[in-house]
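Board notes, transcribed. Complex of a protein with manganese (II) ion.
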Amino acid sequence: MRGTLGLPQDGARRVCVSWQERFADAPDVLVSADRRQTVVPVLDLRIGAGECITMAGPCSVETEFQLIATALHVRRAGARILRGGAFKPRSSPYAFQGLGLEGLKLLARAREESGLAVVTEVMSVSDVPLVAEYADILQIGARSMENYSLLEAAARSGKPILLKRGLVATIEDLLRSAQLVLDCGNPNVILCERGIRTFETALRNTFDAAGIALLKQITHLPVIADPSHAAGRRDLVPALARIAVAAGADGLLVEVHPSPDEAWSDGEQSLDFAGFEAMMTALNPWIELRSQELEQREESIEAVGVLG
Ligand code: PEP
Ligand code: MN
């Protein structure tokens, strides 16, 4: 079966029209005839250009050995971007808050050693210039998604923004925050589904795979998925990664640690090196299917005429 967009064609048209009505005042985040797909340049990478790009690394930067060993390993296994938190938003104020500037310096060293680009979180307006000096992508964490002054400052740094969906944010809320970054003159926004809070308590969060598929229909911004925070358990990370790729995600953000049980944060959801490598290998056929699906989707968009 070819070119269905996963919906009857008329349904797809109605979905796009209803979002155009909702965002009539500020439609820049929505797909349109002259804005089909944003491609975010990061060093020599192009996020959103078709390739599924994996960002991987520890939840928190801990030590030079931990970070460099992880960077070299994830690169060998196919990751293109190194993640690692130097400023950490934690559920408890008594938990490890990150190494701060020392963590940023270690990230810069890991970039030099591995050639990987670096994504790291910025938590406060006053830290933006410092974090922007070291990072290739600024991550806005789930707990900061609606911090508009932080979004503005991060946007004005000119660095690409990885915008994580808030714990209780709707798709519309996420797009409103993205719109603010665009309004500040920064077109380089990557959206990230990382699980949301629902009545379900069996897992850390509820992974909104349908949200990824929907975002791929209605916005031109690249969409990635974080299966680690969504699941909260490392054994489920590969399955959620497959689901994200099948839903059309432009990339993944995955927590990896040399010895997850000793991690200073989020060890229970971090893959070890062997687990990450196995996940990446097992993803290959799904990535291939995704490429075919994307081509068909392009044809379908033409056929449906959703863009007017
Ligand atoms: C993280 O990426 O380590 C993180 C804290 O994520 P989130 O903001 O999605 O909870
Ligand atoms: Mn984490």
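The chain has a mean pLDDT of 94. DSSP finds ten helices and ten strands in the chain.
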